[in-house]
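Journal club prep, shared notes

We agreed each person brings one worked example of a sequence with its structure written out as tokens. Mine is Enoyl-CoA hydratase. I'm keeping it raw so we can talk through how to read the token line rather than staring at a rendered picture. Sequence first:
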Amino acid sequence: MADELVHYDVVGGTATITLDSPHNRNALSAQLRRELSDSLTKAAADDAVRVIVLTHTGPVFCAGMDLKEARGAGAGDQGVNEFPRILEQLWTSPKPVVARLAGPARAGGIGMVAACDIAVAVPEATFAFSEVRIGVVPAIISLTVLPRLNPRAAHELFLTGDTFDARRAVEIGLLNSAVPADDLDAEVTRYVKALAAGGPKALAETKALLSRPRPATPSDGFEEMLGLSAKFFAGEEGQEGILAFAQKRKPSWVPQD
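Then the structure, token by token:
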């Protein structure tokens, strides 16, 4: 559709979700939020989709909430009320999500980057938790950002709202890598292929495992983790993986080149 702000395409097991609202720097308007959430729902439900790539058109990945829509609205009518659903969809998606940034992200845009499993950007991309600069609090995005960031860096950048570059974003844990623009797609493809090599059920369960609270000691978690591990070793997917290893072939779930 010509008037859509989010495009959805599936090729070779990869669902690419593209933010396409460059006129307002891909700000999180009501329409964009709705279409993005719908696309994430579609990807999660599609058995043919193994990996999701979240990307954008235009020079900016996402500028955060649409401030024009926020102006004059009461607390109950703010678009930010719908934003937790999107962050939750990214964070809990059973399919790994890769963020591809060819440009800057701000505020809520960074919250989405942090909610993705893998994030790759060009060196020229910049970032800022700009909320305090306009008198608001980075409250919702803190739930996805703070688990990623070095605590000292989080205090500095949340409180100052200062701009930082992709190199520092890698250093503090926001990005996995920063590569030249000519290498961006190849780097994303490298991650997509690596992720698609994992068993679909194993990937979904591993994502859930990574988000669980850690037990106080390893001993406190061994019984539960033993049950989970044994279940997957004996399960259909695990048995296929073991057989494929023995037969020196790719497991059945790996997309064909």
